[in-house]
Amino acid sequence: MLVRRLNSIIVALAVAGAATACSGQEEPPAAKPSAAATSAAAKPVARTAVRVGSVGGRRVLVDQEGRTLYVSTADTKGKSSCLGQCAATWPPLTGDAVNGEGVDGFQLATYSRPDGQLQTTYLNQPLYRFRDDKVGDANGQGMNGTWFMLDADGEPLRWW
Q: Taking a C-beta distance cutoff of 8 angstroms, is the pair 52, 62 a contact?
């Protein structure tokens, strides 16, 4: 009698185990983060502020440190044409853009450069610094007839 009862219990357990295995109720494997998500988590994007400052008595766009910002007339459709050696002379303003004093934050955006960096734009115009400028300088203004500061409204200053 005991053997029969034990056999019944074993059979019941085996049937229950088989039913569970065939039910398709297995837990899916844990999702692995994508390479992009892992890379983004490993490299937080710096924030950069754009504000209105005074350079040579004019109200123009400057970065958070007060260095003059420029646009290039060679850029088209919000994309930078300044790469390689050009970007060494005219470093792009990179990072997640935030509006500082006097700047409409809705006009700020970023786009992904070919090198993967986020470049800040204002009114769809990529922003740059001139490598030789210090705070308050405008040494790049009008250079090569291509590089211009932006006034407080985002218009290039083609005269100085």
A: yes
Of 128, 150, 159, the residue nearest 60 (C-alpha): 150
Q: Read off the pLDDT of residues 64-106 as tens digits, 9 standing for 90 and up.
A: 999 999 999 999 988 999 999 999 999 999 988 889 999 999 9
Residue showing tokens 């005219």? 90
Contact 90, 119 (CB under 8 A): no
Residue 85 contacts residue 157 (beta carbons within 8 Å): no
Stated length of the chain: 160
- The SS3 of residue 35 is helix
Q: Give the strand pairing for 58-63 and 47-55.
A: antiparallel
Could you tell me the pTM of the whole model? Answer: 0.71
Express each pLDDT in 2-12 by its tens digit.
444 444 555 44
The HSE-up count of residue 121 (CA atoms within 13 Å, CB side) is 18
CA 133, 137, 139 angle in degrees (round to 5)? 65
Half-sphere exposure of residue 34: CA atoms within 13 angstroms, side-chain side: 3
Tell me the C-alpha distance between 101 and 80, whole Å.
25
β-bridge pairing 96-99 and 70-72: unpaired
Phi, psi of 17 (to 5 degrees): -65, -40
